[in-house]
Amino acid sequence: MSTGDTGNEVGSWAERALRRRWRAPVMFTVLGLGALVLFGLLAPGGERSTFGISTAGDIVEIDPVGVPSRQAAILLALLCLAVAGYALLLTARAEPVPLWLSVLFGSAFVLSFLTWAVAGETISLTGALQGSLALSVPLIFGALCGMLGERTGVINIAIEGQLLAGAFLSGVVASLLGNLWVGLIAAPVAGLLVAYLLAVFSIRYLVNQIIVGVVLNVLVLGLTNFLYGRLLSPQAQTWNSPGRFPRWKLPVLGDIPVVGPVLFDQTVIVYCMYVAVLVVHVALFHTRWGLRVRAVGEHPEAADTAGIAVNVVRFRNVLIGGAVAGFGGAYFTLGAIGVFSREMTAGAGFIALAAMILGRWKPMGAVFAALLFGFANNLQSVLGIIGSPIPSEFMLMAPYVLTIFAVAGLVGRIRPPAANGQPYIKS
Amino acid sequence: MIAMHRAAVIRLGAVLAASALAVTACGEAPEETDAGSEGDDFVGCMVTDEGGVDDKSFNETSHRGLVNAHDAGTISDVQVAESHSTADFEPNVSSMVSQECGLIVTVGFMLADATADAAESNPDERFAIVDFQYTDEDSGEPVTIDNVKPLVFNTHEAAFLAGYLAAGYSETGTVATWGGAKIPTVTIFMDGYYDGVQHYNEVHDADIEVLGWDKESQDGQFTDDFSNSSLAQQYSENLIQQGADVIMPVAGPIGESAAVAARDAGDVALIWVDTDGYESLPEYSDLILTSVVKGMDTAVEEAVEATADGEYSPDPFVGTLENEGVSIAPYHDFSGEIDDELAEEVAELEQQIIDGELEVQSDAAF
After folding, report:
1. Does A236 lie at the interface with B, CB-CB under 8 angstroms?
2. With an 8 Å Cβ cutoff, is A46 touching chain B?
3. Running DSSP on this structure, what letter comes out for residue A39?
4. Residue in B61, B172, B225, B241 to test binding to A, most A beta-carbons within 10 Å
């Protein structure tokens, strides 16, 4: 596959690519019709859905918006269908469906679903979005970490361990020294240490990357549980009382309705996340460094021939990734709860891996995937509270079902970096 | 070159794996708290469930029972095996069987099967299990295993009082609860709380709403584990956004997330469970309206004492308001904010429940 593509093969590949493009518009149409029937036509009329916009402390108070549920859902479903029609038209003309169209479709579909689900009730739209972001932050850091590794061809299963190590060390250091900022510096160091082990074993000694990752997760889990039991819990005042970063509301930006409280009234860790996403995006796709990184992940032999030290690039990227994940781990302790607790990452590292794949190994894509997961996870709670007839066990599955659905239905075939998971041995 | 590497790799891999296992295993090895010389050679043993002995909740409280017995000189030694996953249950119980224990206390209903198996194959060993009573599979009637003493609690009686208090205290007319996992020992709290609020509505012709649990459909808000503190915090925030100003988290260690959300919101009070949150959660003591206290420490201590005195019996201990196995904690900082009238009503209800005039029902009751 990697070498000797003939013109003929490339041609057939392009043909297949063209055929595949029908997937999204067709999916849009099916979903749009589904929304029209399920959320609109079959729903009982006469009820109103109310969405709260303002949160406590807003300068500009906006009254909650109430809409007649059935009519609004039908209108939004029709908008979905219009978008789907336009997408079909574009595809028929062999033009690509732009990203903004997909985003518009997604928003209209979700809003249509919400007006249906909230019929007769009130929810805070701003609050729901705030919660979605809060649940996504560690996933985004984790996905960036995974991406930095896999773009060079090293699979990092140890994201969970790196997040947990970051959460642990940041909490302990901030607690011992009584300074949150030192704790925040310690977090990437913890992630880096875990990443160093991963890099040494998988790159230097060629141990199977997946196995090393799994073992590292167990190691960090065991170590933190052990220390938690021996030090953090019995002497919580000394070892486990780091406190939390305050929320900083940015001037002007923070006062925009909905967007302000969601995006610009956050802790320093979340602001760092925005920067990290941008930096990784620019670095990977708009710098020479990024080109080299991607070359190493796609075709290490060629990169080597061009004079790139493959394993050095890999080693470095795994370390950088570890630092990013470790930093993200600080969100659990210093950003959210203010104490470390056992196994508090609760599988976020693995969901981050899924977000990275769903986002096609691209920072922006991973952000959307992580937000989607956070949104679904938060929504199942909000809808559960206002009284949903669906049992809570099934509601808890919603984020996972949605992820599978998104991967299978909307994203289509995903191509990882070609050399992903393969150690490079210079011959 | 590669061959040499491979040998090195295998060795290194093995070292890494072994050290990982060694570290994990450290937590599980039986710990000797203190080789005290008092007592007459009676070792009190305990196997925790996944929460571990320091969970600020039921494992920790049960453990305190053993420690208290040790401090009082009733028993000579305390040994603990912590479980970190369900796979640890059986080996931990078996390791305790080989430890010459006077009484083995297993904590939590998740350990029920492991305890029953060990009890059957070691009929001379004595067990006590916290939070579980064996029942016949077909009839659902309680069954007794000759060497397992169940220590169970009708927490819904105390939670009923907490619900009534919450309803009376609430300014917004909305109170809430959420749980760690949908298991009987969690939902029993929520049932009592729910009924307490409904009782308040009946008595005062009020319309206080309970979010997060519906007794009729037996469903509500659950994080589905006892470790996901971010999700727990989000649940609490969502409940507050829907208007709740009293929250009762029934989730052991991650209940603290609700305290964080309540602190951020400003005017939200908490009802803690298992222990008196005013003491076990000092940083948030000013938020604790009251606590539904489950006297596991007393129950364990009494069971150990009785066994040490040669009076072991497999009859279940059921903690109720009447025998003070369950109770609601003092109002501490909130005593000034709760009307005397409301406090009196709660005290009256407590008496009514003790006297049997008022019956609190829960499917999860014992």
Report:
1. no
2. no
3. I
4. B241
Q: Name the phi and psi angles at B131, rounded to 5.
A: 75, 20
Tell me if A391 and B219 make a contact (CB, 8 A cut-off): yes
Where does CATH 1.10.3470 sit in chain A?
A: 134-411
Q: Report the half-sphere exposure of A225 (CA within 13 A, side-chain side).
A: 28
Distance, in Å, from the CA atom of B218 to the CA atom of B266, rounded to the nearest integer, reads: 30
Closest CA to B153 of B181, B138, B132, B135: B132
Chain A residue whose CA is closest to B259: A337
Give chain B's domain count.
Answer: 2
Q: A350-404: per-residue pLDDT in tens?
A: 999 989 988 889 999 899 889 989 998 998 899 888 877 778 888 888 888 877 7
Most A CBs within 10 Å, among B214, B224, B231, to test the A interface: B231
CATH label, A134-411, candidates 1.25.40, 2.30.30, 1.10.443, 1.10.3470: 1.10.3470
Share of chain A above pLDDT 70, in %: 92
Q: What is the DSSP letter of A64?
A: P
Q: Is residue B15 part of a domain?
A: no
CB contact under 8 Å between A382 and B224, yes or no, is no
Q: Which of B84, B212, B230 sits opposite A135 (nearest CB)?
A: B230
Query: Quick one: which of B230, B228, B219, B217 has its CA closest to B178?
Result: B219
Alpha helices in A36-94 (DSSP H): 69-92
Mean pLDDT of B1-22: 55
| Inter-chain residue contact B227 with A344, CB threshold 8 Å | yes
Measured between beta carbons, the chain A residues lying within 8 angstroms of B214 are 387
Q: Is the pLDDT confidence value at A343 over 60? A: yes
Interface predicted TM-score (ipTM):
0.87
Same domain, B264 and B310: no
Angle at B362 between CA B356 and CA B366, to 5 degrees: 75
Between chain A and chain B, the number of residue pairs with CB atoms below 8 A apart is 151
Q: Residue B79's domain is classified under what CATH number?
A: 3.40.50.2300
CB-based burial label for B169 (10 Å; 0-12, 13-18, 19+): buried
Helices (H) and strands (E) counted in chain A, each on its own, are 17, 5
Cβ of B230 within 8 Å of Cβ of A381? The answer is: no
Chain B contacts of A124, Cβ < 8 Å?
241-242
